[in-house]
Amino acid sequence: MAGLEVLYRATLGDIATSQDALVCFVHWELVRAGYGCLGAGDEPGTNEKKSEMLPADWNKSRELYTLRYQSNDETNVLLKAILVDSTVIFNMMNFKTNQVSDLIVNLTEHVDDDHLQDFGRVFKDPDNLRQMIKSSFVSPPVHTGNSKKNKPEKSANVPYEADPLRIPDRNPRSDRHPAWPDPMGPFAVGGSDLDPFGGRQGGMIFDPLRSGLPRPGFNPTSGIPGRLPPGAVPPGARFDPFGPVGRNPPGPDPDHMPPPGFDDMFM
């Protein structure tokens, strides 16, 4: 905390409340980070110069503190501190990047109101308070537009099957067997229709014996009583049924309740 004690003793006559002591602490941490105070208030004055000291009337209102700073790279920032019950809400705006940073400090946890005139006892946990200020104010404002933009890192060690956007290789390894055909192949589009029995998925011709759906328990080569005699379907031949299989097909007859005059061709 080199320099803070000197600043605190120099402004000891102005410090009358816990928030005064806290604002003095935050001010010095900004000075240590390379900021110089230009003045108090929202509007800049004439012939302003950066200073390590707090400006005149810096605590004129002990409910709202407004201080302006400039960093070493001439970035202007505006710091405001608002007293709300027993807490102080700090707000810093970087005019170059329009970045806004916030910090909320509980006065009872960090400032001893009974020892405002004793620098050695006024701050209860200065190391923790300094870390809070550094993480909220000191680190974000010093970044300028000249810094390189962070690029998203590529994900590493992603399983092959876990990436839904991955297109299989045209020459896959032996342990990968994608079902997708070569997009440059002559049968890539419509290949299932052109070669329905070539082992591809899909196709226009429906084969109930190869569809994978539950099949009725019959063998077309043995014939269908009342429809096909035995041997009408050669063994292994494709068979497209042309009617319900069995004598008592399930389900209602679509013509079991025809409308009046159903057989009248003039209706």
Radius of gyration: 42 Å
Fill in the CATH topology of the domain at 4-138: Protein Transport Mog1p, Chain A
Structural class: alpha+beta
What is the string of SSEs from the N terminus onward? HHEEEEEHHHH
Average residue-wise pLDDT: 75
Q: What CATH first level of the domain at 4-138 would be assigned?
A: Alpha Beta
Q: How many strand segments?
A: 5
Helical segment count: 6
Helix content: 10-25%
CATH architecture heading of the domain at 4-138:
3-Layer(aba) Sandwich
The percent range for strand residues is 5-15%
The side-by-side strand order for the widest beta sheet comes to 1-2-3-4-5
Uncertain segments: 140-155
- Main sheet attributes: strand count, strand direction, barrel closure: 5 strands, antiparallel
* Cα separation of the termini: 105 Å
Overall 3D shape: rod-shaped
GO molecular function: endopeptidase inhibitor activity; proteasome binding
Biased composition (Basic and acidic residues): 163-179
Domain PI31 proteasome regulator N-terminal: 14-140
Pfam families: PI31_Prot_C, PI31_Prot_N
What does this structure look like?
The protein has 267 residues and is an alpha+beta fold. It has a domain at 4-138: Protein Transport Mog1p, Chain A (3-Layer(aba) Sandwich). It contains 6 helices and 5 strands, in the order H-H-E-E-E-E-E-H-H-H-H. The chain has helices spanning 4-10, 18-32, 107-110, 119-122, 126-138, 191-194, and strands at residues 36-40, 64-70, 76-84, 87-94, 100-106. A 5-stranded antiparallel β-sheet has the order 1-2-3-4-5. The protein starts with a helix and ends in a 73-residue tail after the last helix. 15% of the residues are buried.
